[in-house]
Amino acid sequence: MNWDSWGALWAMGGDGIYVWGAYLVALVVAATEIGILALSRRAILAHLGRFARIRPATSDTEAGRRSPLIFPRTERVGGASANGAAVRHRR
Amino acid sequence: MPSCSSAIPADGIGPPDRLERPGVEDWYRRAGKFAPWFGWAAAVSFGAAIYLVFAAAPTEAVRGEHHRIAFIHGPATWVSVLIYVLTGAAAAFGLMTKQQLPSMLASALAPTGAMLAFVSLWTGALWGKPVWGVWWVWDAHLSSELLLLFLFLGFIALREAIDDNGRADRASGVLGLAGLVALPVLHFAVHWWNSRHGHAFPDVRIAPGSGISSFVAVLTMSGSLACYALAAAMTRLRVVILERERSAAWVSCERGS
């Protein structure tokens, strides 16, 4: 062991702010990335969940047979916005 | 409820414009299986590296305590370059083969590479201040790492600016290919030019008689950062796959898992 006390470990011979700052920034960056990843995964799963709630109505029910007319093919190809709007509208 | 094995798109009404891609689904599951292993490997080896750097490595008489910064600065730099090579190669492979998975992998790797390049620059500045007296100099090493960060940011920005995934794949594939060509030039330029940035890592025994050298500590830290980068990229690959394949039938079975 190189250090007599915790104080000596933190002080790092006068370079403490540089040495600990370097390791702290690495940990902060990693924690930020993990947090962003967790949030983005939660967001996409919530988005898919909204899809699933309207799916029973669009599979083989009356609403489902009508839906191609409400949301024509051209709108569907563009992405999820048409369906997202449908969820908000139906509630 | 449509069954999960159905080949009909998740909404049941859309055109089958996004066909089932078994390869993508396989890689989604594979990434989910291996990401925790790499994450734990990264955490354990980071703890071991911290022990080696702070408890085992002696204070260097010549260079003082700030040499301990090099144990994270070097590995962060190397792994950021490695991630850049992987990103460029995956993007270029996606461009050449017109497959989606390599392009998805490239877009999953780039943010992690940018973060490692940022860590490299920041720790380098924290080393430069006590040693050189300045945070930054326009040296070949420092400038090329800054360029690497900008290449990563440019890659991400280019993808974000294009809504259509196919066009984003092609554009970022060209950028990745150009970056791969530039990288060896950068590398040799750094070694040809006279630089005040040190290269060699001293082969110091960090515990007398143990045979463990500072090289082992650097290697442990590099392994830890590489495992972390892989775990983060795999986790992001899963998010990217879900976002891009959202209308595939198998995706609708992934909710809550």
List the helices and strands and how they pair.
The complex is a heterodimer of chains A (91) and B (257).
Chain A (H helix, E strand, L loop, with lengths): L5 H6 L4 H44 L2 H9 L2 H6 L2 H10 L1
Helix pairs in contact in A: 2-3, 2-5
Chain B lengths: L21 H35 L13 H28 L2 H33 L7 H22 L3 H28 L21 H31 L13
Helix pairs in contact in B: 1-6, 2-3, 2-5, 2-6, 3-4, 3-6, 4-5
H/E element order of chain A: HHHHH
Sketch the topology of chain B as an H/E string, one letter per element.
HHHHHH
Mean pLDDT of chain B: 81
Number of beta strands of chain A = 0
Note the gap between the termini of chain A.
65 Å
- Alpha plus pi helix count of chain A: 5
Total number of strands of chain B? 0
- The quaternary state of the protein chains shown equals heterodimer
Overall structural class of chain A, as computed from helix and strand content, comes to mainly alpha
Write down the overall geometry of chain A.
Answer: rod-shaped
Amino-to-carboxy terminus distance of chain B:
18 Å
> How would you characterize the largest beta sheet of chain B?
none
Helical/strand content category of chain B: mainly alpha
| Strand fraction of chain A | under 5%
The main sheet of chain A comes to: none
**Any idea what the radius of gyration of chain B is?**
22 Å
Helix content of chain A: over 70%
What's the shape of chain B? globular
Helix fraction of chain B by DSSP (H/I, runs of at least 4): 55-70%
What does this structure look like?
The complex is a heterodimer of chains A (91) and B (257). In chain A, α2 (16-59) packs across α3 (62-70) and α2 (16-59) crosses α5. Chain A has five helices and no strands. Chain A has helices at 6-11, 16-59, 62-70, 73-78, 81-90. The radius of gyration of chain A is 27 Å and the shape is rod-shaped. Chain A is mainly α. The termini of chain A are far apart. By secondary structure, chain B is mainly alpha-helical. In chain B, α2 runs antiparallel to α3 (100-132). Chains A and B meet through α2, α3 and α4 of A and α1, α2, α3 and α6 of B.
